[in-house]
């Protein structure tokens, strides 16, 4: 299985290459990708140098252009696709059908991948994207079980890529409006979920209060781990009880089920975290590289000890193994 | 943060020395550090202050000293501040000096430090995130930067820094052991108390459920309900 790793800066891309990535995915420094954080992402020149560096080490580079264009300024997204092709990236990750059509018509030789933001989770949807836009790979939403992934792989004519490590989403990828409700900006349109400009942390005695816009998202006791305040991972009070109503702040880690994912026909494993630092990327990519190499040698992969890096500092296998059912 | 305890690192032991160091010397070191940083990593300042210049307060929790950091593409500034002269800043960053230095060099993950509460942030989160991202995009090597400052004495400085790092690690190890010894009896007692509290919480939850069940039986018993709703009036 191909190891697809994140990079938010050129230094992170170098770290991913050094740590054993097969592919590094990144985005331009604007709203065309779903990690549009301040100080993050690549200029055109930086991406050109990054691609050159990666290719020297036999590592591929994918460009994420996976937000939905806003009416009247589609040219920003079109320019991202044109420039990515001119720079020589190995694939473009897209979600919007208008952009897929644009890329297919303007750059028929470009390899197109379907972003998780498109939420294609069934056979007919995936076949539609393949038939209409010649999509060669689909990044599956994090709602599918291992059995469903194996079934899909036996029925569809494209490769599948699944999330292997990192922050979880509330599993309404490409359709979630929670961030927009709280801040007016969303991952789908602006490329950023819960933008940092709307985030505040306040110290109250021994407690830390996290806020997003006008909403209090969580109040942490002194001995609790802190998280980034997204509405989906907020702790709220309902019916006289307080708790994580939507989702707990925990991270995905599938190290223990890599052989099963390979057997299910998965072509690539994606590590989440373009917004994270190069120390995170080095550690996570190295751990997964070692696990995949062990499996390739016919040995069992050991469970990683990466949970100190994850939000909530705990991990889950998410929907792949639905332990709650 | 006024009520929190200082971080237990070797820098804490050096606090009296640092606190009583001549102000002019501390200011000179800060000026030199910032000039070196600006010369060698100008991209950080350009990237992060793309939209606006801003100031931060950096507060190492193991030093009796705070720093005023102004991020400006052309005229950045780093200087010590005293509690008596608070200045308006966009955000404040609190954390032990070793963690802050590792973060500066991209050796630690900022999010992980933050999730574990090693670092704390107040104020404009977006500016802190932008600075973190810009710093992470550079290859910053403090040891080289410091030893290069000594010019032709660079090899000697490098050797001294190596020795200082070894000493620092030994000291940190010893301090951790001392802290563990001092707190072990309290931790044991706390562990026992937590266990008892947990058992009592469970017992209370069981009791609560049992009361709820019994209350439901009393209120919604079909027999009682049927009698109330459908029994004929008693004309006797």
Automatic annotation (TrEMBL), chain A:
<dbReference type="GO" id="GO:0006744">
    <property type="term" value="P:ubiquinone biosynthetic process"/>
</dbReference>
<keyword id="KW-0645">Protease</keyword>
<feature type="binding site">
    <location>
        <position position="169"/>
    </location>
    <ligand>
        <name>[4Fe-4S] cluster</name>
    </ligand>
</feature>
<keyword id="KW-0408">Iron</keyword>
<keyword id="KW-0831">Ubiquinone biosynthesis</keyword>
<dbReference type="InterPro" id="IPR001539">
    <property type="entry name" value="Peptidase_U32"/>
</dbReference>
<dbReference type="GO" id="GO:0006508">
    <property type="term" value="P:proteolysis"/>
</dbReference>
<feature type="binding site">
    <location>
        <position position="193"/>
    </location>
    <ligand>
        <name>[4Fe-4S] cluster</name>
    </ligand>
</feature>
<dbReference type="GO" id="GO:0008233">
    <property type="term" value="F:peptidase activity"/>
</dbReference>
<protein>
    <recommendedName>
        <fullName>Ubiquinone biosynthesis protein UbiU</fullName>
    </recommendedName>
</protein>
<feature type="binding site">
    <location>
        <position position="232"/>
    </location>
    <ligand>
        <name>[4Fe-4S] cluster</name>
    </ligand>
</feature>
<keyword id="KW-0378">Hydrolase</keyword>
<comment type="pathway">
    <text>Cofactor biosynthesis; ubiquinone biosynthesis.</text>
</comment>
<dbReference type="InterPro" id="IPR043692">
    <property type="entry name" value="UbiU"/>
</dbReference>
<dbReference type="GO" id="GO:0051539">
    <property type="term" value="F:4 iron, 4 sulfur cluster binding"/>
</dbReference>
<comment type="subunit">
    <text>Forms a heterodimer with UbiV.</text>
</comment>
<keyword id="KW-0479">Metal-binding</keyword>
<keyword id="KW-0004">4Fe-4S</keyword>
<feature type="binding site">
    <location>
        <position position="176"/>
    </location>
    <ligand>
        <name>[4Fe-4S] cluster</name>
    </ligand>
</feature>
<keyword id="KW-0411">Iron-sulfur</keyword>
<dbReference type="Pfam" id="PF01136">
    <property type="entry name" value="Peptidase_U32"/>
</dbReference>
<dbReference type="GO" id="GO:0046872">
    <property type="term" value="F:metal ion binding"/>
</dbReference>
<comment type="similarity">
    <text>Belongs to the peptidase U32 family. UbiU subfamily.</text>
</comment>
<dbReference type="InterPro" id="IPR051454">
    <property type="entry name" value="RNA/ubiquinone_mod_enzymes"/>
</dbReference>
<comment type="function">
    <text>Required for O(2)-independent ubiquinone (coenzyme Q) biosynthesis. Together with UbiV, is essential for the C6-hydroxylation reaction in the oxygen-independent ubiquinone biosynthesis pathway.</text>
</comment>
């Amino acid at each position: 299985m191909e190891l697809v790793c994140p990079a938010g800066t050129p230094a992170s891309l170098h770290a991913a290459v050094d740590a054993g990535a097969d592919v590094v995915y990144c985005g331009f420094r604007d709203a065309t990708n779903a990690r549009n954080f301040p100080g993050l992402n690549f200029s055109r020149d930086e991406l050109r140098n990054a691609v050159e560096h990666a290719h020297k080490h036999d590592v591929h580079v994918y460009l994420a252009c996976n937000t939905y264009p806003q009416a009247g300024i589609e040219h920003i997204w079109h320019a991202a696709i044109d420039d990515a092709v001119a720079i020589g990236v190995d694939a473009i990750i897209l979600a919007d059908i208008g952009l897929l059509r644009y890329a297919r018509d303007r750059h028929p030789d470009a390899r197109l991948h379907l972003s998780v933001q498109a939420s294609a989770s069934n056979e007919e949807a995936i076949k539609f994207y393949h038939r209409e836009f010649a999509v060669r790979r689909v990044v599956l939403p994090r709602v599918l079980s291992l059995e469903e992934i194996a079934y899909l792989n036996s029925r569809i004519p494209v490769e599948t890529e699944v999330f292997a490590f990192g922050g979880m989403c509330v599993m309404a990828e490409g359709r979630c409006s929670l961030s927009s409700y709280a801040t007016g900006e969303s991952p789908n349109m602006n490329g950023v979920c819960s933008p940092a400009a709307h985030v505040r942390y306040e110290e109250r005695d021994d407690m830390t209060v996290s806020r997003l816009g006008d909403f209090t998202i969580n109040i942490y006791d002194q001995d609790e781990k802190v998280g980034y305040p997204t509405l989906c991972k907020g702790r709220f009070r309902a019916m006289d009880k307080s708790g994580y109503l939507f989702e707990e702040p925990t991270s995905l880690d599938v190290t223990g089920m890599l052989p099963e994912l390979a057997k299910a026909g998965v072509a690539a494993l994606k590590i989440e975290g373009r917004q994270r630092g190069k120390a995170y990327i080095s550690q996570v990519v190295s751990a997964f590289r070692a696990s995949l190499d062990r499996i390739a040698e016919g040995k069992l992969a050991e469970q990683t000890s990466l949970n100190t890096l994850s939000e909530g500092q705990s991990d889950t296998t998410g929907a792949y193994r639905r332990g709650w059912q | 943060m006024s009520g929190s305890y200082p971080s237990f690192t070797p820098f804490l032991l050096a606090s009296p020395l640092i606190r009583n160091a001549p102000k002019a010397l501390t200011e000179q070191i800060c000026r030199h550090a910032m000039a070196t940083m600006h010369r060698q990593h100008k991209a950080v300042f350009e990237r992060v202050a793309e939209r606006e210049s801003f100031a931060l307060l950096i507060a190492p929790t193991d030093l009796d000293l705070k720093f005023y950091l102004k991020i400006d593409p052309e005229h950045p500034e780093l200087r010590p501040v005293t509690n008596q002269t608070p200045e308006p800043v966009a955000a404040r960053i609190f954390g032990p000096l070793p963690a802050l230095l590792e973060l500066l060099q991209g050796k630690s993950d900022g999010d992980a430090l933050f999730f574990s509460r090693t670092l704390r942030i107040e104020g404009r989160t977006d500016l802190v995130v932008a600075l973190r991202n810009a710093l992470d995009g550079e290859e910053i090597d403090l040891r080289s930067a410091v030893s290069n400052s000594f010019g032709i004495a660079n090899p000697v400085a490098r050797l001294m820094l190596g020795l200082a790092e070894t000493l620092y690690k030994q000291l940190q190890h010893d301090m951790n052991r001392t802290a563990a010894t001092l707190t072990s009896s309290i931790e044991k007692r706390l562990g026992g108390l937590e266990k008892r509290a947990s058992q009592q919480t469970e017992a209370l939850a069981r009791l609560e459920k049992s009361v709820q069940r019994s209350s439901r039986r009393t209120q919604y018993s079909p027999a009682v309900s049927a009698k109330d709703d459908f029994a004929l009036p008693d004309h006797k």
